[in-house]
Amino acid sequence: MKKHSDLKYVIIILLILALAVFGTLELVNRKQSTLQEAPQTSASSASEPSASSQAPSASVSVSDTQTTETASASEPSAPSQVISSVAAERVTNPDTGRYIVEVTDDNWQLVVVSGTREFPESYEPNLDEIFDTGKYLDARVAPHYEEMYTAAKQDGIILTPYSAYRSYERQKNNYNHLTETYMADYHLSREDAAKKAATVILPPGTSEHNLGLCMDICNVYDSFVNQKEYTWLTENAYKYGFILRYPKGKEDVTGIVFEPWHWRYVGVEWAKQIRDSGLCLEEFLDQQGIAY
Prior knowledge:
This protein is of the alpha+beta class. Helix content is about 40%, strand content about 10%. It folds into two domains: about 65-165 and about 205-290, 2-Layer Sandwich (Muramoyl-pentapeptide Carboxypeptidase, domain 2), CATH 3.30.1380; about 170-200.
């Protein structure tokens, strides 16, 4: 009889323990359910300002021919010296990923084209021939080159026009030829060869030669830096509106190797300021707060 009584007590104790465990589990489940239903706040969203205080995000619309990226309102404001405001829209060529630069009567003197900036293939400058050389420049530039040529000649210096305006198609052929040369000579992939070629010959639409705004003078050899013609240009070219476009030591800014033969027209006033500043064109525009 005592054994049955003891067994009864054991069973009762086990039932009490089971009920206690079940109650505990139920409480835990309820707490977890409550936490899951509560609004979640991530670390990133907690640090973001409210919608009313956020700057509008960049919007991108894609068409068959171009991508338009609206500049974010969060961009820093330009300094007080700004002559032209930052463009409200940047148009990108989806095939090349480069910004498309419109060349206008207002910006042509300081327009910047480069490996990341191209002008529309449809753009064609109005050209004039340099004397009777078969070389052409933008009609607004040609008289200034002729004036500089004449002045140099009086000093015993001959600034032979070596390479002036080049058509879009010719630029394309030159660039592709150099790319293929690098592929063959250095066993590079087309992509790597094209990048290397772009430091010497810019892709079509990204070269100042396609705009008719520059002249390669005498030759395209590095040794030109040691010639009297180069010395004369460094001392006098600015008087006629020309600057050394790709100076030594500015390769990381311009994206182009030092080219002592390449002289770009920017106008007499700008040329003097750029020369005096010791900056390349991109640096000068940044310093002045001029959008390009």
